[in-house]
Amino acid sequence: MKKVILSISAMLFAGVAFAQNVSDVDQTGALNGALVVQIGSNDSDVDQIGIANVAIVGQVGAGNESTVYQLGAFNTAVVGQVGWGNTSTIGQGIWVGNTATTIQVGVDNNSDVLQIGNFNTANTTQVGWGNDSSTLQLGDANYSSTTQSGLFNDASTSQFGALNFAFTDQDGWFNDANTTQAGLFNISSIEQDGIANYASTTQLGFFNLSTVSQTGILNASVVIQAN
């Protein structure tokens, strides 16, 4: 009987160890705020250096990982993860007022956001399995919106300058969308509905406008604009 009790205790301890949530919050500065809510077995890391940065993380499921780095003032990061094995990384560097929101629902979705500058906004929504999104914003007041629904879609957005706007919407499987903007007041929209479509948009200069809409299978589009 003693051996049975010890065996059950060991099993319960192993189960608890496996199912634990892990949260680490490090704050240096003044008036920084972090809220972390975890249900299941998840991992969250928040590092804040500066003034009045805000990080909100909600995780439900197992194996979800969220990392938030904030350096500066009045930056805001919001992460919501529901499912299994989703990964989100948000880095907000110098200076002020950057906002990043990442929502992941499903399995093994990955999102990376890096914002360096002021008042940049990056919104990422992933629903499905194995979707990958990366957003880089270097400058001021750039806006990026990425929405992925389906399986193994890939989206990349890079913005350099100010007041550039990029919209990516993928619905389906294995779609690939890449947007690069360098300059001022450029606008790019990519919509993909189907399987294995490819779209690349590059805008260099000022006031360029590009719209790409793909429906079906194995369509390919390359747009290059410069002035």
TrEMBL record:
An individual GO BP term: cell adhesion
Alphabetically ordered keywords of this record: Signal
A GO CC annotation given for this chain: pilus
Signal peptide segment: 1-19
Family in the record: Belongs to the CsgA/CsgB family.
Protein name: Curlin associated repeat-containing protein
Organism whose genome encodes this protein: Flavobacterium cutihirudinis
